[in-house]
Amino acid sequence: MRGEELAPARAGTARVTTAAAARAHVRAVVDACWNATARPAVERDIIDLLLVASELVANAVRHGGGLAGFEASPAADGIRLAVHDHSDVVPEAAYGPGALPAGHHGSGYGWPLIIRLARDISISPRPSGGKTISVFVPIRTDSGEAS
């Protein structure tokens, strides 16, 4: 990871410019909140979280006029992600059922995956223009219960 991709700004917030940097930051937040020995997180949940972070950032870069900010805030039972972009356009599939596209046409899998893996999805306009997409991804402890 290059230094310019991830520079901590404050707790939960990082200067993220790529999906890879978002994944690295989210992994660091999880590692800081879920102790590998006393309170281990379920690896499958972490993989889901990293996938959601990647898709949100990639969508902001590809479809949202660029990434304007990224936050990962821990809660007792998961991580809330907030991705800020420069576009006022709400993705067409944002509030859809999460159905995957019938055939592969090069895109269209991101939102269905986000809808399937995340909870509490909200999209709100930013005062300076653009929007914030906020989602919650649950993380269970290795015991199978919400942490």
Automatic annotation (TrEMBL):
It holds the Pfam family HATPase_c_2. Keywords: ATP-binding, Kinase, Nucleotide-binding, Serine/threonine-protein kinase, Transferase. It comes from the Bacteria. GO terms for molecular function: ATP binding. InterPro entries: Anti-sigma-factor_SerPK, HATPase_C_sf, HATPase_dom. Residues 21-130 form the Histidine kinase/HSP90-like ATPase domain. CDD domains: HATPase_RsbW-like. The keyword ATP-binding applies. Gene3D superfamilies: Histidine kinase-like ATPase, C-terminal domain. This is ATP-binding protein. It comes from Streptomyces bobili.
